[in-house]
UniProtKB/TrEMBL annotation:
Keywords assigned by UniProt, alphabetized: Glycosidase, Hydrolase, Signal
GO biological processes: glucosylceramide catabolic process
Domain Glycosyl hydrolase family 30 TIM-barrel intervals: 64-395
Stored InterPro entries: GH, GH30_C, Glyco_hydro_30, Glyco_hydro_30_TIM-barrel, Glyco_hydro_b
Similarity annotation: Belongs to the glycosyl hydrolase 30 family.
GO cellular component, one term: membrane
Domain Glycosyl hydrolase family 30 beta sandwich: 398-458
GO molecular function: glucosylceramidase activity
Protein name: Glucosylceramidase
Amino acid sequence: MRIHQNEETLPIRDRYRNAQVFQTSQNSNQRITRISKLVGESRSITNPMHVRIDPSEQYQSLLGFGGAFTEAGAHVLSQISAEKRNMIIDRYFASDSGINYRLCRVHMNSCDFSLGNYSCDDSAGDTELQHFQIARDRKHLIPWIKAAMAVAGGPIDLLVSPWSPPAWMKTNGTMNHGGSLLPEYRDTWARFFMKFIREYEKEGIPIWGVSVQNEPLATQTWDSCIYSAEAEADFIANHLGPLLQKEGLGDKKILIWDHNRDLLYDRAKRTLSNPEAAKYIWGIGFHWYSGAQFVNVEKTYREFPSKKLIFTEGCIENGVKLGQWDRGEIYAHNIMGDLNSGTVGWIDWNMVLDHHGGPNHAGNFCDAPVIVNTDTGEVFFQSSYYYMGHFSKFIERGARRIGCLMDGAYLELTAFLNPNGVIVVVALNRTGEERQFTLEILGERFTVLSPGHSIQTILLD
């Protein structure tokens, strides 16, 4: 049995006799729809697949799924009726009528998906942070988070990530175009994190963790800041980590990297080589913009088993394409690849954008699972919303990834054992052909027909 370090195995049922199938497919109206039969009409299927599920082979424990609260998304939601706004929030955060988001991200200071550059303290030289405030967040962003928590019925694990310190703390004197943190402001910047956490918690919003810097090797035309591995480790070891401990915030998780898969292993190895930093580091965040290098995710998972892996950002760039089905398939392929490589949580980028793919103060327009036409008030749910839901709605917090072996290459699968004993299998068919597969578990067999360009969640109990 494979066990993630310091985790107990989940109990397994003696038998699994029943199966429920939920399906989303391109050539139907099915959208996370429960279907009545495992297999449609009897037909001849070329190259049927066999899948063996082994619940005794247990891997990492799941933390959850979700998306990012951005100023752009909050602004878009403020432009539509309360009825539609509440509907979108419900569709994301409700466990019954929604897709059960429980792990989310928020930017500290501005990001490109803000209405412009801003920080919580733009008073140059204010090393005591006497002018620190979150008034801008209180306008739309914090009310959105509170509404989401109300629908979820409790706290949402919230990861705080900065895109840039205030301009006055940086070598280049601007929040944009890279630059780096001036050494004399390291302590001040660490206190900035502490004050942000406390101000949000005064609002009734618990903070789960922080990442040191979004994309620390990217010099962008928007909010950005460069950290080498050594600089990131030093900031954690000598400033952020000790301060959070001293201030009673040692339970806040610290994530490093928060950039692409291509350099994930190398960056983790270099940063964690500093033992004073390593003792404060809970995990490693990563993005997808360099490609699907899942081998780097798995290598990091295996070589640093005490550190957790979270996918912290991904989106499809170059604006909105309504109804383009492969959006969802791209999401599911990445989610499966990351989960099967040891990832414990998966956070999408913007949950909501307008019909241009913004607002974005740098013109970096992107797609999102929910698009709102702010001229007409129409709301569009993209395929990516439903494909995300096939994971987030059914795989519960604390679920363990389990063994899943298949004898063909036409489908992509992952399997989890929920704490209540139910097994969740997600099957992705990115081909245009129907594919039949048989699930075998503890001597029981269930045969499923997968339509072309579809995703299915099978619950076994």
